[in-house]
Amino acid sequence: MNLHHLDLNLLFILKTLLEEQHVSNTALSLNVSQSKVSRSLQKLRLLFKDELLVKSASGYELTAKAKDISSSLNDVLENIGQLVEGKTFVPEHSTRSLRLFALAPYAHQGLPRLISDIQRQAPNMLIEVDSKPKPPFESLIAGEVHFALSANQPSSSENSLYRIKVGGFEYCLLMREDHPLAQQDLSMADLAGATLGQISLDGRQAFSLGAQLKSQARLEPDALPGAAIHVTDFCLAAAIAESSDTIFCMPASFAQQASQGRDLMVKPLPPELQNDSQDLYLYWHKRYHMDPMCIWVRELVKQLF
């Protein structure tokens, strides 16, 4: 391949094409004409000797080669950015992109102050936040993001990750105001007999509260409660709780917000579970451990939290 005529702008268009998987959406995202994106796609197809993006029954999909390219393109563009900026990082002059992954409750807890400080000190940087429900370390391992904010623990196979603590969550219960259990202090046995909902932000359906009930209430194995409904959205959970007997366990800050102006009640967990909390961590992969921009962000996080 002759790289003398390679236009680096094509790689940035390719990155967005691979993310959007649609010419029109890519044009809107980049604020350029659709014809420019189409011409760029034709050049990229010639460059990589592959269709990259093909029509399917559901719209468009990536070819196998495009998927391979996608897994390494972020690293390539990141290296180009470092090459241009050099080994030092000057926040006020930087035009790099900072990519973060955080599911909704973690993003609300840890990102507003951080983003505010980054924008103040590095006004020309682009901050991209991905909050789509998926396993928390997937994007981090793939090199798609610089940092992930999560209360989950990585598996033993994900041993290339570093982390620092940035906060934590206290949990409580959310139910409708006229729920049969609303006017009493709740016990483990009360919850074991109640209709419980699960908010599965990353698509998992493991019901941790059920396991706690089995342990603390000494339930028989066949009496282990399961979640009657799984949702991936806090607002939907609040609406379901308001119109049914379903009880949701969620971070106290979200429960307080969800109950405002609605016929909902926030209740403490039974005493056996009131010490349960989750620590929130900022994770990063070793590939970015010595990156000057990421070092600066980590120092900023340490100052804030």
UniProtKB/TrEMBL annotation:
Pfam families: HTH_1, LysR_substrate
Keyword Secreted among UniProt keywords: no
Coiled-coil segments: none
CDD domains from the UniProt entry: PBP2_Nitroaromatics_like
Alphabetized UniProt keyword annotations: DNA-binding, Transcription, Transcription regulation
GO molecular function: DNA binding; DNA-binding transcription factor activity
Occurrences of domain HTH lysR-type (ranges): 6-63
Keyword Transcription: yes
InterPro entries reported in the protein's UniProt record: LysR-type_TF, LysR_HTH_N, LysR_subst-bd, WH-like_DNA-bd_sf, WH_DNA-bd_sf, YidZ_PBP2
Gene3D superfamilies, A to Z: Periplasmic binding protein-like II, Winged helix-like DNA-binding domain superfamily/Winged helix DNA-binding domain
Family: Belongs to the LysR transcriptional regulatory family.
Full protein name: HTH-type transcriptional regulator LeuO
Annotated organism of origin: Marinomonas aquimarina
Lineage: Bacteria, Pseudomonadati, Pseudomonadota, Gammaproteobacteria, Oceanospirillales
